[in-house]
Design brief:
Distance between the termini of chain A: 15 Å
Radius of gyration of chain A: 13 Å
Strand content of chain B: 5-15%
Number of strands of chain B: 10
Largest sheet of chain A: 2 strands, antiparallel
Strand content of chain A: 15-25%
Largest sheet of chain B: 6 strands, mixed
CATH class of chain A: Alpha Beta
Order of helices and strands of chain B: HHHHEHHEHEHEHEEHEEHHEHHHHHHE
Order of helices and strands of chain A: EHEEHE
Distance between the termini of chain B: 26 Å
Number of domains of chain B: 3
CATH topology of the largest domain in chain B: Rossmann fold
Number of domains of chain A: 1
Oligomer: heterodimer
Strand order of the largest sheet of chain A: 1-4
CATH topology of chain A: Alpha-Beta Plaits
CATH architecture of chain A: 2-Layer Sandwich
Number of helices of chain B: 18
Amino acid sequence: MTAPGLATQWRLRVDPIKCRAHGLCAELLPETVDLDEWGYAIARRAVPPLVLGEARAAVAACPTLALRLERTSAS
Amino acid sequence: MSRRPNPPEQGVVRPPSGGWRLLSGWAETGRAETYSEHVERFGRLPLTHYAGTAGRQRLIDAVAAAGLRGRGGAAFPTAVKMATVANGRGRAVVVGNGCEGEPSSRKDRILADYAPHLVIDGALLAAHATGADEVHLCMHEGAASLDNVARAAHEHRSKVKVRVVAIPGGFVASEESALVHYLEAGDARPTSKPPRVFERGVKGRPTFVGNFETLAQLGLIARFGPEWWRSVGTAQSPGTALVTVDGAVQHPGVVEVPYGMTLGEVLECAGGPTETVQALLVGGYAGHWLRADSAVAVPLTHEGLGAVGASVGVASVIALPARACGVTETAHVLRYLAAESAAQCGPCMFGLPAIASDFAELANGSAVRDQIVLRRLERRLGEIDGRGACSHPDGAVRLAESALRVFEPDVRQHLAGRPCAAAGVAPRLPLLQPGRGVLVAR
């Protein structure tokens, strides 16, 4: 049995229509967010637990509200 | 025209025999089927047989037992979608998708023109199974079939409201969230997921979007049962499929074939190749190139194409002649796909023109620079994949990746400064000329 919360993984989901390549997320969270050559966010890696706070900050900072922090079950 | 009186009672009607099912009317008469001919051929819509809650479940079970998968390209199990919509929150809506934005495919137009009643039957069955009270049948603006389908729908005198809707043209306008978006807000561009339309679609209601061929197959399954329906095809890919065959073949057009036929046999259905063929484009513009020599033995099935890294997609097969340059042809298709982007998502809006011009540079061949171009292209393909609201960019990536594999010897020659003779020419294939073609007989 895993303690609740331990198996939880977090991921940033980018709404591709809303993302307008402002790039604040990559400034705040380089651990998880890359930018493509046109400046649009790529968030394929899981968010390490230690930077969950920064991830929340990135979500809040996005000028177009294109980011969401989502819980995914660890596989 | 003589009308034969008294359509036979339901149950007396025999399922179509021989190769043609959906298009058996056309195969026999060579023209569009009238409503009375349709009823005579297939029998009345057996809604009473599926009455009540138990009946609706029986209908969904029959579709599940048949193993019907969507024919619009994604091959999603139809019964799963139906059950999700039927059990969703709120009154369901049914959308029939006959837009066929994919230029390599003409099967849905052929169905709308020659067997509209079977499509309408399927839409009404889907409405019955999901408890929907409205049906929207969507086709692209200007399609000659629009009036035909509207007239045909009127003849069914269904209690369910059936509306025929003209959708603005465009490749991505017929993606399911784009259809729902258009019906809702008059904007035929895809929306972000979630929510998926089967959860929350038209008016926020669970929405069943079914391709015209999927609906027509429903019309057969409901009448003649899953066992009959599965009697052709393979265990994993049962039934028949409408396939558009084009390129270097004698008689380009649409054929109805059982799943499991090899791609070589499919080409023969269209009269066979007119010249030496080097590659086949399978599954549409968002599909895969396959080398012709090995592909002719590959069965047209989900499992057969899956095993060679391809997929059925919209079930079109285009034969590329040996004298054409695959790199150049792919560059043309990629430019088309780039132009068809809804320009909503950055990776698609900027990425597709970028990979299209990379391909054009490879096609034109300037040795020194091309090494850089190829590396850049490969990086871009990896970056763009999966980053759109719809799968439009993914389709372009698939096409480009398969082209790099299949035409690898050509790419190498181009990189060495020796582009093929046909490099950089205008497209040889009828790739960018939608609307071509006739029905071919087997």
